[in-house]
Amino acid sequence: MQTPTFELHPFRGLNTVEEDAALTVRSKERTYTELRKAENVCITETGRVDMRQGMAVATNSPYRHLWQHPASGRVYGTLGTEWVLIDSTDWSHTVLAGTDSADWAYHCDVNGFAVVSVPSGLWLHDGTSARRLSLDRPGAPMPTVEAGGSLAAGRYGVAVAWLRGAKESPCSLIEWADVPEASLLRVTLPMAFDPTLTGARIYVTAQNSGALRRYADVPINQAEIAIPHVDQQTGMEPPFPLMQPMPAGRFIQHWRGRLLTAGIRTLHFSQPLAHHIHNARTDFVQFPQRITFMIGVDGGVWVGQQDHVVFLAGPEPDQWVIQRKAAQRPVPDSAVLLDSDVAGEVAGQAGCALWLAANGYVLGTPDG
């Protein structure tokens, strides 16, 4: 018995809704076939099928965590444990920094600069060179008492902060010294291991006082400084007392003048306009489940959890209200900040969050 044959062309496209019997239509007016699945082919306007062009190897370098800076167009990534700048024309690279580990790396734009978060910390590339974003908190200085000064008898405290240009690190712990009449303090500065540091800022208390005041700035290669006299009225207080360098996280974003990073279950945020400084006592939000994504929008921050989504509503962290949203389980690492030109009216003027969930793509609006 001869097997019947029939013409399948033209193909009209994909149909994943109708039953199998409805995929082929034959009549005097029209004849077409709709496909359930089409892999590695292109369907033309006339309904013909062309094989897709095969893929070609662009480079043998095993780059990971690729990201393109939205303003400059530079391409960044990791190669082994190195953070690299990639030339996409020939896929060569320039090593920016060596990191202890690059198991994960997340990028963001901070005031036109590229910032990457890796397990060993935060790094910044300004277009010319790369350096650590954060400044380590220095160790405590070592004050010793000597004769020959004009300090009044009493107890004095000394602390130090590192400088990189105008950027100041968190202040060190205070070291105290009991000073007899007509003496001076000779302060030995802690060791500095960051080659990008430019100086150190010395803070000292007044006689029998606990309030630090700025005393002097010294070059980073200066090992000690003498304090023969303290003016109780001059000098500003340290801007970052009892604070820490901003921690890294698996997710990172610049939001309303702050840097946000998220670890396993904790979201950290920096001090305003001081992206390298973090108050470990107050600058965090703890979540009950693992964080699967983090996207900041105009009215707050969307945070993915294992089986739901949370919106931190408010313009500032101290005004955040945690709102649990009735959303399906989000796919980890699937969220992006969608530009308002792409999202349309639902995003307003500032863009919105987009992530993939069990029920498809979901938009997180700026107002939650």
Blueprint (SSEs and pairs):
Blueprint: E1 11-14, E2 24-26, E3 31-35, E4 41-43, E5 49-51, E6 64-68, E7 75-79, E8 82-87, E9 92-98, E10 106-110, E11 113-118, E12 121-125, E13 130-132, E14 142-151, E15 154-164, E16 167-168, E17 175-179, E18 183-188, E19 199-205, E20 212-219, E21 224-227, E22 244-245, E23 251-255, E24 258-262, E25 266-269, E26 277-278, E27 284-286, E28 293-297, E29 300-304, E30 309-313, E31 321-325, E32 336-338, H1 340-343, E33 352-357, E34 360-364
Parallel strand pairs: 1-3
Antiparallel strand pairs: 2-3, 4-5, 6-7, 7-8, 8-9, 10-11, 11-12, 12-13, 14-18, 15-16, 15-17, 15-19, 18-21, 19-20, 22-26, 23-24, 24-25, 25-27, 28-29, 29-30, 30-31, 32-33, 33-34
Largest sheet: 5 strands, antiparallel
Compute the average pLDDT.
Answer: 89
What does the radius of gyration come to? 30 Å
Number of separate strands: 34
The shape is elongated
Which regions have little confidence, pLDDT < 50, spanning 5+ residues?
none
**Helix-residue proportion:** under 10%
Derived from helix and strand composition plus strand pairing, the structural class reads: mainly beta
Q: Count of DSSP helices?
A: 1
Percent range for β-strand residues: over 45%
Q: Termini distance?
A: 66 Å
